[in-house]
Amino acid sequence: MAVNALKDYSFAPADSQDKFHGNQLLYVGWDEHLMFCAPFAYCLPPDTRFGDLCQKFMAHSFGYHPEWKQVDFSKVTWLKSGQPFVPDMDKTLAELGLGHKDVLRFRTPGLTGIAGTCS
Amino acid sequence: MSKVFIAFQTNEDTRPIIEAILADNPHAVLDEQPAMVKIDAEGELVIKRESIEELIGRDFDLQELQVNLITISGHLDEDDDQFKLSWLN
Amino acid sequence: MDMHVKKLGLKEKYAHMTRGLGWDTTYQPMEKVFPQATFEGIKIHDWEKWEDPFRLTMDAYWKYQAEKERKLYAVLDAFAQNNGHLGITDARYLSAIKLFLTGISPLEYVAHRGFAAAGRNFPGVGPRVACLMQSIDEVRHAQTQIHAISNYNKHYDGFHDFKHMLERVWYLSVPKSFFDDAFSAGPFEWMIAIGFSFEYVLTNLLFVPFMSGAAYNGDMATVTFGFSAQSDEARHMTLGLECIKFMLEQDPDNLPIVQKWIDKWAWRGIRVLSLVGMMMDYMLPKRVMSWKEAWEIYFEQNGGALFNDLARYGIKVPECLTQCSVDKEHISHQAWATFYQYGGAAAFHTWMPNDEEMDWLSAKYPNTFDKYYRPRFTYWREQAEQGNRFYSNTLPMLCQVCQIPMLFTEPDDPTQICYRESEYKGEKYHTCSDGCKHIFDDEPEKYIQAWLPVHQIYQGNCFNEGVDPTAEGFDPLAEVLKWYHLEHGKDNLDYEGSRDQQNFQAWRGMATQNT
Questions:
Q1: Do the Cβ atoms of C188 and C40 come closer than 8 Å?
Q2: Residue A63 covered by a domain
């Protein structure tokens, strides 16, 4: 619905991709691991390899968790906007069709967080 | 019937006001909390100028209540003689 | 000779001193003088039907407000003269006051401007006078809060630059965006947003149990400004309720518009109150009541009574509120966990609750605390004791509407973060809940402009001038903190080991001993 206003009401989005200096936003959340209070926001070049996302950027963010070392990426399942997503570790974000402000969730079967409480 | 309430700061000004409210509204319940007093009542609560004047021994303007008032719940109807809170449903 | 001077009764006096002051313009047509009165679609046929139940006129207003000020400043003097800051339970308490000063006091000032604007934009005399008084009240609240809290600024960290921080610091965008959203709407929506949802439905939760908590924690200054402000709130709440009734009674076409605003602003207010929930459950060393208990008294019972009453106009309880009875057992824990892990970028100290506090939380939250939160918090505490204190090192994803990190869980599954997504003109937008998604989808054009702190940092807009983010060894967090005017190691991080902790202990020791 249009905004009720006294004059024409039309604005550019504040966060379009062109404002991120060649990078794109990508959000990643680890299901059943709420020790990390919210999904993380990454600002990465579209040619970032998915393997680097996992092993470099996500490892940096999620590495504090005692279960991170047990994460086996060959068994991890992914959701993109809630739908199943199968990445290829050697392909880039762009090649995998991951666009600006896409959101990924990953699940690690068998790992249930601190004391099994999804923390 | 829903509850209405009124809360005042706990101090010497409000002591007789609270006493008057409780006397005029036998169904009201007093809830004392740190630094404040809350009075809950089913349906309605009436504060009467005359009752307060009798206890403090001077003229009282019901608008003086505002100085120590913390919060109210319910529709308010105020005139020179009474300050009434109520829910219509 | 007998003098029979009849004093005007309250109702007559009110009629003369409000209605009697109004006039219709003649040089310019009324609709050009009051353009904002109609564009929102609210139809008003007779402004004379507006009632102010307090029937307060300006002469009485000044008299009683002056008395409130005299009382307040007498207490503030006593507080300063008697080292009142050493009488608080524990300097951890001051984190709550820092959050109050940075997150709430500046909003009082925005409310002052907003009500001044609403008073200007309404053609009716009744609401104009009421908005004028509320506008003056709100600037009084901002000033008295700043005065009262300035006493703490003399002794403790984090109080030094609230005005600068409001427009920059990530979590302050939450309350700021709430008020920006309301202020950029028309005067009727403003009245529902602030006058009704915020003042009537929610302000009790902020000022009443929290201020009583300040009293419980020995903070004479805050209790006094809090209750002094709250004494005005009773009038504000009445104005908010009156405004709703007035709109609904004026024209049946107003109902769907009013309902939409109530739904929106109840939800937006509830999201902002997550901060208050955390203040009550975690930041007050001595607790008065839990967030859940306060919610039950002031929202479920009191809000329930209100909605029962408004049902006669056809108003329904906002749908999004059904999930609040679940959320009330979670949000304070989820919010504190968030500040704990992002405590490196907060302008106050954080900590994990001690054993006694965890037991209190277990008792108050028997369904959730031990099951979902205690193990997490215990783990963090143990790690901190081993020198491995948890600080999140990556920025979180934020909700496009409430701007809170996406920390809220699904209403039917407290182990699953709630993700909601919308698309508008080819761009994706993420929200934290059905409530926020609904608000976004209704007015996407408004929320696509949101100044989301995380995205702004990534765009490079949150560093001081001259800083080069591409330079070797660039430390983004350090640079953002400088831009916030937040001194790393003093204003942020853990309470344990902070200057506040050390100073409070040392000064309290000096106050009770001679050596």
A1: yes
A2: yes
